[in-house]
Every structure is written in C-alpha cells, then in structure tokens.
Amino acid sequence: MDYRVNIFLRQKWNDPRLKLPTDYQGSDLLTIDPKLFKCLWKPDLFFANEKNANFHDVSQENILLFISRSSDVLLSMRLSLVLSCPLDLMLFPMDMQRCKMQLESFGYTTDDLRFIWESGDPVQMNDIALPQFDIAREDVEYRNCTKFYKGTGYYTCVEVIFTLHRQVGFYMMGVYAPTLLIVVLSWLSFWINPDASAARVPLGIFSVLSLSSESMSFSAQLPKVSYVKAIDVWLIMCLVFTFASLVEYAVVQVMLNSPGRIAAEKERRRMRERMKEYADVEEEFERTRDSASPVGRPSPCSGVHPTSNGMSTPGLFGTLQGAEARYKRVCMSLSDLRTPDFSIVGSLPQDFKLTNYDCLTARAEHDTNKWSRSLQRHDAAHETRTASQSGHSSSRETGRSLLASAFPTLLLPFQHHLLVRLLMKARSGSVFNGRLRRHLLPSN
User: Fold this and answer.
1) pLDDT on residue 377
2) Three-state SS for 154?
3) CATH number belonging to the domain at 2-167, selected among 2.30.30.100, 1.10.560.10, 2.70.170.10, 3.30.470.20
4) Is the N or C terminus of the chain more exposed, i.e. has fewer CB atoms within 10 Å?
C-alpha cells in the first residue's frame, strides 16, 4: 500500500562558519533569502521508502532558512511525499497497519553525520481524519534505523512509525450484513415444503450465485496476496452454508423417495383409513344402541320381533353380519381392553394376555363364523324345545337365548376382536368356567 503525506520538514544543525557579527543589533534569528539556499551546506537527507516527492513553489518556493547568533541553522521546507507501506492483511478488515517514514543520509557516513530526533514531540500532527483508518498521537513511535551497506559503511537513519487502526463500519454494512442476510435467506428453504422444488431450488441457487458475485467483486478491490484473509474465511463459510442448504434439499429428496419410507407411509395411511373406518362403525353402533326399542316392541335396527306371547325372539345375527365383516379389519390396542365400560373384564384370568396390536387372523374369522352358526343352531333347537313348555320357564329360556344371540351386539362397540378370542376360548373352556359360559351356552 502507498500513502501520501504533506509535511513541513525541519532540519537543524550547527555551522560555525555562519556566525553573526557581535555588533549585530537585530533579532536572535536572521532570515536568509531563499536564493542563498543553494549556496549553503545542507545535510544530504532523503526518504528511504519514498516513491514520489515534490517541492511546493506556489507562489514561490516554500523554503525558510534561519541563522541564529550561536551559528545554528534552521531549514524548513514544505514537501508532498508518496511513501510505501507494506500491508499485513491477515486480519482484514479488523487489521492494524504500521506505516514507516525513514529519513536517511545519502552520502555521509555516521563518522560525518548523525540524525537525532529532537527531544519532546518531534512529530506534530493536527487532528487527522482518515476515511478508513484511525490514528492518534499515542500511536506514533520513534526509532533509530542506522543501516550498514557493504563497502561503504554505516549510514545514519531515523524513522517514525504510524499505527493505523482500520474502521470496520464500512465492511459491516457493505459486506458482513448483506452476506449474512443471504445466508439467512437460504435457510428459509428449510421451512418450505420439500415437495415444492420449484420454490426451494431457485432460492438455493440464487443464494449461492449472490455470494459468489459478492466475493469476486470484493476481492477485486483488495491487493492480491498469497495468504487467506479473515474476510475470505467469512465469505467462504457463508458460501459453504448456502451450498449446504442446497445439498440438504437433495439429501431430503433422496430420503423422501426411498422405497422403505414410501412403503411405511403407505402403511400409515392404510392404518389411518382403518381407524377412521372403525370410528364410523363405532358411531353407527352407538346410534343403533341408543335408538334400540325395548324388549317386546319391534326394532328395525336390531331385527327383534315380538312373539305371540309378548316376548321378543332374537334375530340379531343377520343385522350384525355386515358390521362384523368391517370390524374384522380393525386392530385395537391393549389399553382399550381394560376400560371400566367392559363389564366382563373382571372375569378374565390373570394369565390372559393379548399383544398390543393383536389383529384378527383368518383362523379367528373362521372360528367366529363357526361359533355364530353354532349359536343359531342352538337357538333353533331351543325354540323347538320351548314350544312344548309354558309360562315362566318359556320366558326364562327365551331371555337366555336372546342374551346369547345379542351378546356380540353388546360387546362389539368395545372390542370386537376381543369377543372373537373370548368366544374361541369359551368353546375350549380355558377361560370362562363360570358365569360367561352359563350365559352363552344354556343348559339342556
């Protein structure tokens, strides 16, 4: 980097040959005409890191020369300099630069001439306002930089070091904030439906291209260096995040379209349809139960018709066949089997267990139909036997037959698959040895 300065260079030395007369009555400093400047001896000073320098001669040469009574010569001139300053952009734009100004003798060695900074504050600066850097007087450092050149010897040199702190406000608003917003914009694709590829893909591509363009345009304004700068790390990470959001969408699409997930989704939809179907059937049975007619009156829902003696005859199996066929496709959880609404739960033995989702199998369906047919045959035989009986005995047996035929109707609103298993076990005698078997199987 180069930096340009306008300075008043003041040099002071002692020349015994230039001594004012003792009878001189003027001031202690004698102003010399600038035309005599070339006639005087002057130090051969030059700026070691100078790239360009100019004297100011408007409206005349800006040179001031004083001679004191003690033979001290003060030379002041106005210069415009362009000096070089090596940059360390490792921490850019939060970096700090140290720029030097070196003043060195060209022909006189240290045996003939030595440069020494004036005591106190040799470099005086007014309030300097730089567009990109901050500098303070406390950040100015003075050093001696005497140099050795092979073949000629040591040459006197002094330097002043200016510490410049870069202002990051421009880069915060011009680089960090826009790139951060682009990254956040790319993250919005995470809230878009994965099936909406027309919205997610252009958003990711736009973010990647925007960051790439921002990075290239900004890098063109910086010096070409071989190392990585701090802002390069920021831009690269922003590009990685935006590119990762685009890659994430591709990964999500692969996972969504995997055969295993598609099969699982179909199974979940099938189970939801079954549960909805079960809810509809349960609602239908609730309406049937609420609208059922009392015993002795005809009911279109139950299919029960009164006999000549005022008692009803069971005829529920024909009505329940359609509902049973639909219930056989529904699975119920084990937690539903232990509800207080199920009045015969207390009759279950301790070792009677069912799986969490114990669906009806073809064997259970076969046994259910077989058991229903057995009950129907039993009812027909019972009606034949009760035809010869009278009074209270006929009513009692008819009620028992009604309970046997209507028992599936009472139990289906809870768990139909449990009914099937209970009836199967009741046939084998492994579960109900008592009251349930007596109700279901009337004695001869």
Assistant:
1) 67
2) strand
3) 2.70.170.10
4) C
